[in-house]
Design brief:
The radius of gyration is 18 Å and the shape is globular. The protein has 2 domains: 12-95, Beta Barrel (Thrombin, subunit H); 130-224, predicted glycosyltransferase like domains (Thrombin, subunit H). The strands form 2 sheets. A 6-stranded antiparallel beta barrel has the order 2-3-4-7-6-5. A 5-stranded mixed sheet has the order 8-10-11-12-9. The protein is built from 3 helices and 12 strands. The longest helix is centred in the C-terminal third of the chain and has 14 residues, at 211-224. By secondary structure, the chain is mainly beta.
Amino acid sequence: MTVDERREWPRHPRRVQVRFAAEGEKRFTSGLTNNLSLRGVFITAPKVFSRGTRLRLELDPGARAVVIEGVVAHAHRVPTELRALGTSGMGIRFLPPEEIVKPLLPAEMVTGTEAGEEEDDAAAPGASAVFAVSFRGASDFLRCFHRDLVNGGIFVRTERPRPMQSLIELEFQVPGRDESIGVRGRVVQVIEPRSGESPPRGGMGVELLQLDDLLDDLRPLVERLGG
């Protein structure tokens, strides 16, 4: 299994005004989108919320405003004294309708792992599934790190993708390190292999659930590899 370079939902460089507020807050903060896809957005703004914070977003506020809910997948904070070298921002994953509606339903109407906000990892679909993720070389790893991993996700090519919302374990086999690095993830996108396709190019988009720990492990390797 290797990292696939394709994206079912490619990011597009797009500068659009956006207003956002955390769940329960009434005061909105303004910012700009840096890139945009059908599944998420990266926002540059002076105010950055922590990973996992649920947000209400208004893209292109005004007559054509698009209102959507999302959750912070990755937060990038730049200290005030270093603002000249970079801008704070955060990657946002758009919430699908089922995640928005689920809290409104009685628990007995929600089956399987959808019951409640907390999940039993042992009972969750895919909780015991382990996928090894390897790279063709240092350049592929560095490209994946800066493009995908720092934003909280990765697309893994496999002939047997797990169902949506499955919890899985990823074992990263990184150039320059003998031991693999493990991290838990949640399947947020599934692409089934097409019949007769050779080689099969199915796969799954995975949201990384232990991103901070993973990045702490990977950054020394990135520096060592010149990235």
